[in-house]
Amino acid sequence: MQRETTIGLNKIFLGFKKFKFYPNYYVCVNKKVLEQAQQDIKQLTCRKFLSNRCGNLFQNDYLTHVIDTSAPSARFCKNIESNIEEGWTVTYAALQIAYYLGFKEVFIIGMDHSFQYNGAPNAESIMTQKDPNHFSDEYFAKGCTWDNPDLKNSERSYEIARQVYENSGRRIYDATVGGNCDVFEKVDYTSVFL
Q1: How many domains does the chain have?
Q2: Domain for residue 105, yes or no?
Q3: Is the pTM of this model over 0.85?
Q4: 58 is a domain residue
Q5: Burial class (CB in 10 A: 0-12, 13-18, 19+), 54
Q6: 31 inside domain
Q7: Which domain, by its residues, includes 141?
Q8: 3-class SS letters over 74-91
Q9: pLDDT (tens digit, 0 to 9) for every residue of the chain, 194 residues total?
């Protein structure tokens, strides 16, 4: 993947050594992740796109673009200069950013789309064990708060993204090994990247 342009999401920095890559871009729109990981995020030396949900926690500079996520101008924002739609998942935000940056093909790797949790979608929860849902059990460490995923609304957002991309002659592929999302065309990771 060293030849590819990559976008890392949320707490991807926990996997830099494991995955042996550093992203060209980074996206985070989840307030809890922004607050919990603010020092790690500030230390990233790639271009960052961050939600404004944390007040003045992050400032615009030559690497950091703070984007308004409070009142999106469209369900899929092709121009992210003024705002962006979160769409219940950081992946959706990243797809809008990739579109704005001009990517014709996007390959999603490691999309979380199967979670163990108690309670309703979008409800705040406290992690009572090591995180069973992400590539690192420290992603949301024991005692951390996180918001339960909303897979139905995430899928609706993905369907919108797929349609916007396809209407523009672009494509989104899902190269997640063992992935559980059926919205995007599946491709074999090893045939694309190895």
Answers
A1: 1
A2: yes
A3: yes
A4: yes
A5: middle
A6: yes
A7: 7-193
A8: CCCCCCCCCECCCCCCHH
A9: 557 899 999 999 999 999 988 999 999 999 999 999 999 999 999 999 999 999 899 999 999 999 999 889 999 999 998 899 999 999 999 999 999 999 999 999 999 899 999 999 999 999 999 999 999 999 999 999 999 999 999 999 999 999 999 999 999 999 999 999 999 999 998 888 76
